Amino acid sequence: MEGLFITFEGVEGCGKTTQAKLLYEFLRQKNIECVLTHEPGGTRISEKIREILLDSENGEMVYLTELFLYLASRSQHTFEKIMPSLKSGKVVICDRYFDSTLAYQGEGRNIPKQKVIEINNFATGGLIPHLTFLIDIDVEKGIERIRERKGFDRMEGQNTEFHKRVRGAFLSLARENKERFRIIDGSKSIELIHKEIVNIVLNFI
Ligand SMILES: Nc1ncnc2c1ncn2[C@@H]1O[C@H](COP(=O)(O)OP(=O)(O)OP(=O)(O)O)[C@@H](O)[C@H]1O
Ligand SMILES: [Mg+2]
Questions:
Q1: pTM, 2 dp
Q2: Which residues form the signal peptide (predicted)?
Q3: What is the pLDDT of residues 147-193, one digit of tens each?
Q4: Angle (deg, nearest 10), helices 16-29 and 190-204
Q5: Quick check: CB of 193 below 6 Å from ligand 1?
Q6: pLDDT at 131
Q7: Where along the chain do its domains lie?
Q8: 54-74, pLDDT tens digit by residue?
């Protein structure tokens, strides 16, 4: 594998999409070939699965169905888009990846963590990001930021307690995987966070 696989993680409204896009634009300006993508989604088939996952009318979805749909979306995304891009030497920037599954379905939904890791590795051929930014922020603050968006999707509609457990799970993951994780203070300004991320990525390249 020649490229660089960078993921952005964190609770709703922490700034993942904002920072992923800024990093992508920065690298493009430096003439570094890169791909900006996101989960769930990123390919035609994966986007169809995303619609099922985020539809607030699918309230009866059981947790294992949710888990397998995320993984189905990820398999398609990984093999159709991420791996080929990495093989051709590109930087792949992905807004959420498997740490989100561990945090939301593992910790949030109480599905045994070892099982989630095992089937995730099966679904992705064992692909692990080289660098993961955890943008950490107070759950209420994150929710406050996205409140203006119209309607809550199925995951966003969970209670604050759920999101607090998810935040805790992300922090534990970062502590357990220090070599690839960088924890970023999401309460800083967009510009400051962007600079911090750029510095880390440039050191990594
Ligand atoms: N550091 C920041 N300070 C203040 N506002 C921010 C910051 N970062 C992002 N925002 C704003 O907060 C909102 C949510 O940001 P963004 O969409 O990037 O979060 P996200 O982590 O992708 O959320 P989601 O998990 O819902 O996709 C946006 O309106 C964005 O402009
Ligand atoms: Mg986002």
A1: 0.96
A2: none
A3: 877 667 777 777 899 999 999 999 999 999 999 999 999 999 999 99
A4: 50
A5: yes
A6: 98
A7: 4-204
A8: 999 999 999 999 999 999 999
pLDDT, residue 148, reads 72
- Residue ranges of alpha helices (H) inside the chain are 16-29, 44-54, 63-77, 83-87, 98-101, 113-124, 139-146, 160-176, 190-204
Residue 170 is classified by DSSP as: H
Ligand 1 nearest-atom number relative to CA 19 = 18
Cα 35–chain centre separation: 15
HSE at residue 172, side-chain half, CA atoms within 13 A, is: 12
Taking a 5 Å cut-off on Cβ, the residues next to ion ligand 2 are 16-17
11 labeled binding residue: yes
Chain centroid to Cα 100, Å, comes to: 6
Ligand nearest to the CA of 148: 1
Instruction: Supply the CATH classification number for the domain 4-204.
Output: 3.40.50.300
Q: Is the CB of 39 under 6 A from ligand 1?
A: no
Binding site annotation covers 14? yes
Distance in angstroms (rounded) separating the CA atoms of residues 174 and 182: 7
Render pLDDT for 85-133 as a digit per residue (tens, 0 to 9). Answer: 999 999 999 999 999 999 999 999 999 999 999 999 999 999 999 999 9
Q: What is the DSSP letter of 191?
A: H
The Å distance, Cα 11 to ligand 2 centre, comes to 9
Atom 25 in ligand 1: which residue has the minimum CA distance? 12
Testing ligand 1's pocket by substitution, the residue of 7, 17, 143 carrying the most ligand atoms inside 8 A of its CB is 17
